[in-house]
């Protein structure tokens, strides 16, 4: 007997699953999230939140809370330096050799209202969980999916609550697999994977040790430790007493994680740091693979893969979790558009079309950064040059991508390129950020994002503005329109916006609920309402 029904069942309560719940709540779609563990992660793991991800959190009003949470972790000193050396005590600063790359573009300050934020995963996840609860989310930890079946109309899932052993059945219209790198759901669906596979094996040794005095004045993000009997990266969590040591080991030489019990790891850490009497408390030891594995399909019927379940990539550059959160953001508004009757289910097929190419490129860039010696400028000139020629700036990977799907009115021929970080209004890219005045308050154009579509026109775009309002009323679609200029709804005295958007003063641009430009018109056209109707029908996968 089916005990309950939910629109969306999310399996996995990590950083991506929790973000999925929040984005769906923001779009007005109830969901049930289940997580087999009893609590959020106790490990720092992902540490860096890229500017595009912070834009997503800004949209739901969490950016300031997350930034304050991250700032509280860094108790002293600066963050972002890189050290190399045989031990921490003799390490020297070294600019990271692979920080740049092609397409560095303009200053990020001019392109986004947000910036990079440091907030370890074990600090971020409780913030996301608390916010989801406050917004009425149904999130059940210590609850595991043990089986599921799907049909043409939905998914039937069997859950078990570990504390009591109680089993229950849930019927969901759609299900989202956010269940991690070795996703049981992906395996059960028979989804194959592509990619380079395993690149290297590491032990993640999370420990506490007071190194305040040792790092004072040379605070860092990562320190390469290279000794004849030891190779790895020491990662700072707060530059005082919380650290992670990624120790490389080689199964081809017969090494296994069992060869590294806590006592041995304590000794290795003391030798790596150079303090034989250092008090070290091991919090966790776990093996992991630096690997590239991309699911060959992100959707199977009414089930979608997000995060590591869809794409596993090396951690270098921090692309993994951020790419997964972008998956969730892309999928959430599309599910909402289907649920509220704005779009047909055909819109959901664009999730894979848009996100999988981005995931493949992000994984490729992560893999290029996997060679630690080259990353720190210690490789040969030939090796470094070969990698640099393929490398793209981190910020370009983070936000410079361009979606391609039938719902995007592409203007460029051929495949999208990742050669610049410039948001210029091209369909498929994130809408340009411009500071404007709205009702006496200075906001970004990205702050106009809501549950529906937004049409922005230049100062002379009244015809588009009026056509959009008539169309929204006639077809009952969620479409807001604003005129941007020296006068109008959004004040832009210097007329920066229409130049940034690549349209004339009487042109227009259509922004999706995720901030992506779906269409633009350089100038005014005859019968603007008819043109807009054709655009909206295609974007929502509806037939005129």
TrEMBL record:
The keyword Oxidoreductase applies. The chain crosses the membrane at residues 6-25. PANTHER family: BINDING MONOOXYGENASE, PUTATIVE (JCVI)-RELATED, TRK SYSTEM POTASSIUM UPTAKE PROTEIN. It comes from Reticulibacter mediterranei. It comes from the Bacteria. It holds the Pfam family Rng_hyd_C. The keyword Transmembrane helix applies. Residues 6-359 form the FAD-binding domain. One of its GO terms (molecular function) is oxidoreductase activity, acting on paired donors, with incorporation or reduction of molecular oxygen, NAD(P)H as one donor, and incorporation of one atom of oxygen. Keywords: FAD, Flavoprotein, Membrane, Monooxygenase, Oxidoreductase, Transmembrane, Transmembrane helix. Its cofactor is FAD. This is FAD-binding monooxygenase.
